[in-house]
Amino acid sequence: MDILNPGDAHFWELLGLLALVGLLIWLKVPGMAMAALDARGARIQAQLDEATKLRQEAQGLLAEIKTRREETERQAAEMLALAKSDAERLAVEAKAKLEDEIRRRGALAERRIALAEAQAAAEVKAAAADLAAQAAEKVLAARLATATTDPLVDAAVAQIATKLQ
Length: 165
Hints:
By secondary structure, this protein is mostly helical. It has helices at residues 9-26, 29-146, 151-164.
């Protein structure tokens, strides 16, 4: 098998292959292929760089969000504690106000009871005085009806007459 024999088919295959390779080199196909591969590699590297940059930004945002969440949770805990203390303080104030109101109403009721007792006592005294006056009136009327003159009244009138002179 002699490859350099022009009568052999392998010779022509080799010649065609060499011509094809020469033509590809003359047309700068390997350079274009390398340029295309380099461009694709650069695009892939740019995408990788962009992905790395985005990942770093995402990690930064995640850290910021975690910080904000922790701050928000801390503020919520503070607000809850403040609300609890306010509720306890308001409960104590409400209890104190209720006790004060009960005391004031009790004192007011006691004053009203005392006033009612005083009024009742005054009414009893007035009724007793009215009864006494009526009894005295009846006694005096009975004396005047039986006697034409009362010795006590006559003595009092004589005494007045001497005092006026």
